[in-house]
Amino acid sequence: MTEAERLLDVDDLRVSFRTEEGVLQAVDSVSFHVDRGEVLAIVGESGSGKTVTGMSLMGLTRSPNARFEGTARLGETELIGASDNDLRKIRGKQIAMIFQDPMTALNPVQRIGDQIVEQIRAHEHVHKAQALDRAVQLMERVGVPRAAERLRSYPHEFSGGMRQRVMIAMALSCSPELLIADEPTTALDVTIQAQILRELDELRRETNAGVILVTHDLGVVAEIADRVAVMYGGRIVEQGTLDELFYDPQHPYTWGLLGSITRIDRDRPGRLPAIAGLPPSLLNAPAGCHFRPRCPHEFDKCTEKPLLEVRDPAKPGHCDRCWLGLEDKRRLRDIGDGEIGLATKEVVA
């Protein structure tokens, strides 16, 4: 990609919150970029820092007890240091977000049409009638039947899948350059999931917008992503193209995620594979590699903090945070019959 195609550049982002129990480091030294027309998936367990990363780019995690370090540039605009007034102009216009739960993200006492119109008129000087016409077009575009009629409905009158379509329509109402989709298919049945993903992919291709897809579902990632960043304990532990992450993963946590997926081309196991142990407390994270307490392959050097670096010169875009050598990784991730996974480890609570 040329520099002109670069849309977002995040460098060494750190987000922490002061609590009564101490400082919680929610995001720790996170760096990534998104190009125009590209989908970057950020995956990981709940509590890994995915959502905080996305919301921090929009300034939605700002509070008196929050501290931010690092940079995040959207074109020529610095997001982390931007004022609240500047961010209000950016949200919805340059960056839009599809929130995880549309029922709580939408105003329950305001009609759907009024909510979409309000966002359009907040950023553009248009008459209400024009904004309503555009709202109808957006609702039709994302597959809401009888769009003109449904604009007068309230959020509780829509199903979960239709509310998610409304969120997508609202996010796209001002043609944003960057779309952050936070678990856009959570709690939806697989048929609706597939429809939502197709719509996101088509809209991304039509508008050439960059997309950050926040999810824990690797099936969703395989469907739509171009590149993948794997987060654990507030850090990105591996980053690369979709094929690199699925066919040549380098970090043991990624092996565990891939190994936890049920394979339909193999006999059903007696017990579903799982990563032993629990995610670390970000109030008191382990020294060195955050995954060390759960990793069956830890050794002495793992008590030192590994950097997110390119380990294989043949793959300059593939980075990870693991001290194991390349050959050791390829040997240890094979749990039999060429299947990638994480060896079992008994973790004492």
From TrEMBL:
Taking the record's annotation, the residue ranges forming a coiled coil are none
Q: Which InterPro entries match?
A: AAA+_ATPase, ABC_Ni/Peptide_Import, ABC_transporter-like_ATP-bd, ABC_transporter-like_CS, Oligopep_ABC_C, P-loop_NTPase
PROSITE patterns tied to this protein: ABC_TRANSPORTER_1, ABC_TRANSPORTER_2
Q: Where in the cell is it found?
A: Cell membrane
Highest rank taxon of the organism: Bacteria
Keyword list (alphabetical) reads: ATP-binding, Cell membrane, Membrane, Nucleotide-binding, Transport
| Annotated Pfam families | ABC_tran, oligo_HPY
Q: Which PANTHER family match?
A: DIPEPTIDE TRANSPORT ATP-BINDING PROTEIN DPPD (PTHR43297:SF2), OLIGOPEPTIDE TRANSPORT ATP-BINDING PROTEIN APPD (PTHR43297)
User: Belongs to which family?
Assistant: Belongs to the ABC transporter superfamily.
> This protein is called what?
Oligopeptide/dipeptide ABC transporter, ATPase subunit
